[in-house]
Amino acid sequence: MRKICKEKLKLERFELPRAEAIQFMEEKEEPYKVELINDLPEDAVISFYKQGEFTDLCAGPHLDSTGRIKGNGIKLTACNAAYWRGDSNRQTLQRIYGVAFPKKDQLDEYLKAQEEAKKRDHNKLGRELEYFTTVDVIGQGLPILLPKGARVIQTLQRWVEDTEQQRGYLLTKTPLMAKRELYKISGHWDHYLDGMFVLGDPHDETKECFALRPMTCPFQYQVFLNRGRSYRDLPMRLGETSTLFRNEDSGEMHGLIRVRQFTISEGHLVLRPEQLEEEFKGCLDLAKYCLDTVGLLDKCTFRFSQWDPANPNNKYEGTPEQWDEAQRVMGQILDDLDVNYTIGIDEAAFYGPKLDIQYRNVYGKEDTLVTIQIDMLLAKQFGMEYVDVDGQKKIPYIIHRTSLGCYERTLAYLIEEYAGALPCWMAPEQVRFLPVTDRAADRCAELVKALNAKGYRAEADYRNEKIGKKIREAQIEKVPYMVVVGDRDLENGTVSPRHRAAGDLGAMSFEDFEALLKKVVDEKIKDKDL
Predict the structure, then answer these.
(1) Model pTM?
(2) Closest to 241 measured CA to CA, from 361, 415, 351, 403
(3) Does the pLDDT value for residue 463 go beyond 60?
(4) Alpha-carbon distance 259 to 408, whole Å?
(5) What CA–CA distance (Å, rounded) separates 288 from 278?
(6) Beta strands at 393-394 and 397-406: parallel, antiparallel or unpaired
(7) pLDDT at residue 251 is higher than 90
(8) Spatial CB neighbours of 9, under 8 Å, sequence gap ≥ 6
(9) Contact between 199 and 175 (Cβ < 8 Å)
(10) What is the per-residue pLDDT across 108-155, written as a single tens digit (0 to 9) for each?
(11) Contact assessment for residue 261 and residue 142, using Cβ atoms and an 8 Å cutoff
């Protein structure tokens, strides 16, 4: 690579007709490139790049010369096995990762940032802190939430459900699977079958066939359809803590961020057209409130995900006119709400445009955290109607939305954002009592019981170890409060709490410490705001 940089080779682009392109790659004994060419649309431009004696199939673009990169500004970062096109049934190849920068100091800065990212990587830190694990015999993308991780997600779920109830949401609980007939009505069978886990032969219409649900929407629609509805029933806000299943490629799996089974704060709002903007505003306000409370909003970006008119047949439901109208309405709403967004072409759901709230992990890879979608199509397919003020039957609009998104993905981002030191209100263990003597151990047991009875999460370290070691271990485990209790505390009726960031808080009564803890938990105060 350094040799190529010194040679300052020009990179030249050229195109070939499909037949010539295939012959060219066959002559070079490149079967994988031949396969890629064969999979391209008939009208695709097939381009190549030539660099010295090396020529390869590539869409580009490239730098104009290898001389743009200095030899000391490149580094190979990893080399590992990868299935061809992410399919575990295909050939195993070697994937080589590398980076290149115009100058060495830029490379050094990047490598330093990567080292810091590794310290926060949830896939490493989350396992070390025992939030989750994975097991080969269970499978990729199917993490085991250990007690700490399960407790954090339970805390978040209860909080989101309570918050949604305060905002007028009705709680539902729907099945994890359904017959293919439901998915045919919704369009998932035609547009999402490859991403579903199917139980039975999907092509044998003579036998019953089920599939695990990849979305909750067709299930929650049945709540609306349970009886006749009028305009007085709308908006109907339905919320559910839903477990979903998606058959992601094995090469896409990553810790808790990309999994095959996950739980999501899903909801659907059935409403009259004139209620759309106000309800969309409420969904966005709820999402921003949730993300701000957990501390992720400041790093989020917004993407207006639209359809691709050039790809209407195999991905999208509806007519161009319906899509134009849905996107016009959504664009107007986003502008009215002063949302600063980018546009993502061909990122829409198959039934409508959406606002995606995006977040990047510590390595800079972007994923969707929360989504709010406008749907003007599926209500008609499901026969959803309401009687309007004028006595006429009308078809409602639907908003698909999440409040905090996928809980597993949110936990991953929280671990990375806080380097494992989650805010006290959501921490799996909020207080650890550290007795100095055997006499103090009995008092610690009483205090643990008192706090746990009030809904806090407290434990005690009764091991016969020096108090310094107990404190260090609690710090490593990111416990927010360590409460030391010694003979002097027993005599004075005090406790001696320490905070993992603020340090020694001094001796105080247990009642004063409990009041401090209550304030931090109830107000969901972050360490930086103490």
Answers:
(1) 0.86
(2) 403
(3) yes
(4) 8
(5) 15
(6) unpaired
(7) no
(8) 51, 52, 65, 66, 67
(9) no
(10) 999 998 998 999 999 999 999 999 999 999 999 999 999 999 999 999
(11) yes
